[in-house]
Write a structure and sequence with these properties.
The complex is a heterodimer of chains A (112) and B (114).
Chain A: E1 9-13, E2 18-23, E3 32-38, E4 45-50, E5 55-56, E6 61-64, E7 70-75, E8 84-94, E9 97-99, E10 106-111
Parallel strand pairs in A: 1-10
Antiparallel strand pairs in A: 2-7, 3-4, 3-8, 5-6, 6-7, 8-9, 8-10
Chain B: E1 4-7, E2 10-13, E3 18-25, E4 31-37, E5 44-50, E6 53-57, E7 64-70, E8 73-79, E9 87-94, E10 104-105, E11 109-113
Parallel strand pairs in B: 2-11
Antiparallel strand pairs in B: 1-3, 3-8, 4-5, 4-9, 5-6, 7-8, 9-10, 9-11
Classes of the chains: A mainly beta (112), B mainly beta (114).
Chain lengths: 112, 114
């Protein structure tokens, strides 16, 4: 699986957009970009994923650069409950199915 | 509520004890996973089961013994653990073969080995 690089931590003001970057310069053509988040003492939660096109759902938007070497997760109006560790993961299928390798993630702190 | 339930939520055990962690999913998935999350470390994949068959053992010590009696249940049997095994143990499930499998995680069991 391609490796990802994320900032260790970020702050965001409540109500503002949170933009979380991720670099995945060695991504392969058939690998998806996934985002999960983990609120303290809970299991990770799926947010969004994409291959080439930008994606949006009720939680967030995912912007993938044209060369696919980086992406940005956007939380349009961050709330205090969005404080969590956000993981950017590039996934490759193997015979065993879906194997996700988690890195250190970005610790997002939303402040009042 | 993610549809994946783990029990117990917290567990304290001695190094000579035998205990089991339980995971149950109500999502109709056919793949289940055990992950370990130690303090200040990334999640580590331990085991993967697809259609009740173990398809991945990520060099996990034999003091951790998984069991998957059916596609909805997954156990992790623990015996003669060490203090460094204290961690959050997370169970997850997914539906393989769909092309964009998402993992659904339980809330985890916080294990302390004394």
């Amino acid at each position: 699986d391609a490796k990802t690089t994320q900032p260790t931590s970020m702050d965001c003001a409540e109500g503002r957009a949170a933009n979380l970057p991720c670099n995945h310069s060695t991504i392969s053509g058939n690998e998806y970009v996934y985002w999960y988040r983990q609120i303290h003492s809970q299991g990770p939660q799926y947010i969004i994923h994409g291959l080439k096109n930008n994606e949006t759902n009720e939680m967030a938007s995912l912007i993938i650069t044209e060369d696919r070497k980086s992406s940005t997760l956007i939380l349009p109006h961050a709330t205090l409950r969005d404080t969590a560790v956000y993981y950017c993961i590039v996934r490759a299928l193997n015979n065993a199915g879906n194997m996700l390798t988690f890195g250190g993630g970005t610790r997002l702190m939303v402040k009042p | 509520e993610t549809g994946v339930t783990q029990t117990p939520r917290h567990l304290v055990m001695g190094m000579t004890n035998k205990k089991s962690l339980k995971c149950e999913q109500h999502l109709g998935h056919n793949a289940m996973y055990w992950y370990k999350q130690s303090a200040k470390k990334p999640l580590e994949l331990m085991f993967v089961y697809n259609f009740k068959e173990q398809t991945e053992n990520n060099s996990v010590p034999s003091r951790f013994s998984p069991e998957c009696p059916n596609s909805s249940h997954l156990f992790l049997h623990l015996h003669t653990l060490q203090p460094e095994d204290s961690a959050l143990y997370l169970c997850a499930s997914s539906q393989p073969g769909t092309g964009d499998e998402k993992l659904f995680f339980g809330s985890g069991t916080q294990l302390s080995v004394l």
